[in-house]
Amino acid sequence: MSETASKKRSEKLGDKNDLRIKAIENGTVIDHITPGQALTVLNILRVSESFTNTVSVVMNAGGSRGDKDVVKIEGRELTEKEVDAISLISPKATVNIIRDFEVVQKRKINKPDTVCGIVKCINPNCITNSSEPIETRFIVTDDEKVKSLVLRCVFCESVMTEDLIKYIE
Amino acid sequence: MSETASKKRSEKLGDKNDLRIKAIENGTVIDHITPGQALTVLNILRVSESFTNTVSVVMNAGGSRGDKDVVKIEGRELTEKEVDAISLISPKATVNIIRDFEVVQKRKINKPDTVCGIVKCINPNCITNSSEPIETRFIVTDDEKVKSLVLRCVFCESVMTEDLIKYIE
């Protein structure tokens, strides 16, 4: 089998169910997602029923580093904003960009120093929750004690640490 | 490789990403889901971030019958109510029960004659939307003109045909 044919070969997904899905030609593989967070990643990427490209998801896969989720999405490369949003819910994820069946970029997600326009402020009286056209902005820090990211709103100083998922816009 | 080892062998999912997921030992494969509806199926099965078994999803897979979604879920067999709910959004789906790595049952989903406790009535004044402990019940028919299922509430005669997904409880 030629190199190209090998790359293009279908992959067996099912056990006795003969589902075969093509390898990604162009797109993104998000690997090492925190177990259970794959559906949140799909939400961040706005993948819904109207999305027509192939998407594969494995939740709670047994990888070499223990359980993880994986999302493969055809025909999409992620924006910086999307990567930042994923970092908030899945700080150990890696993002691999695929072009012409090759991994052209493989990178770990880094905790961003600030996140803008991604998370809604928990404070209903924050100016970002008013009718003013002001984008949210948070300073991101780690909190060793709670083993979680801490977001501090630059406008109202509100601190958010738990349930960040609920506030991702 | 022995038969058992063959059954138990891992499967390659990724292209150059070496994700391997185990074959399902016990669980359910829902195949031939209407393209895009896999996430609704996960909702129906209450699969969320707290679910700890392995779940694999492919959306818009190119199968022999054209595009379809597939959901594989470890350690779960579906209730009749869950199968009925799936039938409303994906009438061509098949449900395969896996036990000890074998497909022990493979069946097409049939349109149910009635659905009870699955869909919320569209009529806010329906008795099923009051504080009375009355389970919803709809007569299900096909409508050739709109090529869609039609649900008629047995209590208030309201007819529902579009956006059934929104009303699945």
UniProtKB/TrEMBL annotation, chains A, B:
Residues 115-164 form the Aspartate carbamoyltransferase regulatory subunit C-terminal domain. GO terms for biological process: 'de novo' pyrimidine nucleobase biosynthetic process; pyrimidine nucleotide biosynthetic process. Its cofactor is Zn(2+). Residues 19-109 form the Aspartate carbamoyltransferase regulatory subunit N-terminal domain. One of its GO terms (cellular component) is aspartate carbamoyltransferase complex. Keywords: Metal-binding, Pyrimidine biosynthesis, Zinc. This is Aspartate carbamoyltransferase regulatory chain. It comes from Methanimicrococcus stummii. GO terms for molecular function: metal ion binding.
